[in-house]
Amino acid sequence: MNKQTKLTLAILLSNLFIAFLGIGLVIPVLPTIMNELNISGQVVGFMVAAFAIVQLIVSPIAGKFVDSIGRKPMIIIGLFIFGVSEFLFGFGKTVEILFISRMLGGVSAAFIMPAVTAFIADITTLDTRPKALGYMSAAINTGFIIGPGIGGFLAEFGTRIPFYSAGVLGVIASILSFLLLKEPARDYEEVKQTSTTQTKGIKRIFHPYYFIAFVVIFVSTFGLAAFESLFSLFVDHKFGFTARDIAIVITGGAVVGAIAQILLLDPLVKRLGEIGLIRLALFVSAILAFLMTVVSSYFMILLVTFVIFIGFDLIRPAVTSYLSSVAGNEQGFVGGMNSMFSSLGNIFGPIIGGALFDQNLNYPYYFSVVVLVIGVLITLRWKRPDLT
């Protein structure tokens, strides 16, 4: 990639990081909000999932706008809406306002994700695209994981401060995107030559190239959402963790996960292949999710959390790399479905986890174990297609 492409990619990844930072910012202050508004764990689960529900609904419409209006305008609008949603959450004093804020956040993600995915496909070649999409996945996961850490530290100055800060970042990112991004040219010649499947419409989801990968995206996102969205409540109720303790654990996990992506992803993919790495990471994550219910010391909580984030951080870019290599001219479709199945995981993870949490602190993690094991079993039948 040349210098201009690298700069454009850096701007796009920064935008994604900021947007998904907003999802995680709410997590450390959930116990405080629960106490302030006297709401149950199930209601908290619905509030966290509201973001993903709206993203799921709006994403197909936004995907059409990305092609008709353009990539750059959708990114700018999406970032601005994100900023508004974070400010609204900061000012909100009722459950209804907090729900509206999360729903606007879902609209912003629905605008940003397909646009950024298509933008990256436009500015990269078939050789450089998998690596760029891997960076995109890393930016999403890092934002989602590190958000609670930053939110926890900022919450020391007030439980609403994290959202004011995120609102400012969203508006700044929108302005910088307007000034620095240039609408990319679309290489239709390459698109025509690299089609991998003639299946049309919704049936493409079930194409052998894609279906298991989409299921893995759902399973891994579900597992991470159920694990992280209830983590602050789990350690608060079970161990008496403060917002600062939660921030240290989750931020540390994010740092370790990012290091693992840099140092381990490439050699593990070369040794095991994307599918082999995904299978191994799902298996290890299932074991660690169970261990969360039996550990008791602060050190063991740190260790288990750090390692499980490594597993989740390796799954997403591995799946993205696989999909990019088989998608050909359907990069936009793959990006949209990636977003949709991620949304489904983000919806059902917190909702089911929240309901189970109200019954027993350990139940959300038991359920995550079951889902992750199912994911492992599914990958046993997954083979890379022969595209030659």
From TrEMBL:
Subcellular location: Cell membrane
InterPro entries per record: MFS (IPR011701), MFS_dom (IPR020846), MFS_trans_sf (IPR036259), MFS_Vesicular_Transporter (IPR050930), Sugar_transporter_CS (IPR005829), Tet-R_TetA/multi-R_MdtG-like (IPR001958)
PANTHER family named among the record's database cross-references: GH10249P
PROSITE patterns according to UniProt: MFS, SUGAR_TRANSPORT_1
A Pfam family annotated for this UniProt entry: MFS_1
Entry keyword Kinase: no
Identification of the protein by name: Multidrug resistance protein 1
Cellular component per GO, a single term: plasma membrane
Classification lineage: Bacteria, Bacillati, Bacillota, Bacilli, Bacillales
Its membrane topology: Multi-pass membrane protein
Similarity-based family: Belongs to the major facilitator superfamily. TCR/Tet family.
Major location category of this protein: membrane
Keywords in alphabetical order: Membrane, Transmembrane, Transmembrane helix, Transport
GO molecular function, one term: transmembrane transporter activity
Domain Major facilitator superfamily (MFS) profile: 8-387
Entry's transmembrane regions: 7-27, 39-62, 74-91, 97-121, 133-155, 161-181, 209-234, 246-265, 277-295, 301-319, 340-357, 363-382
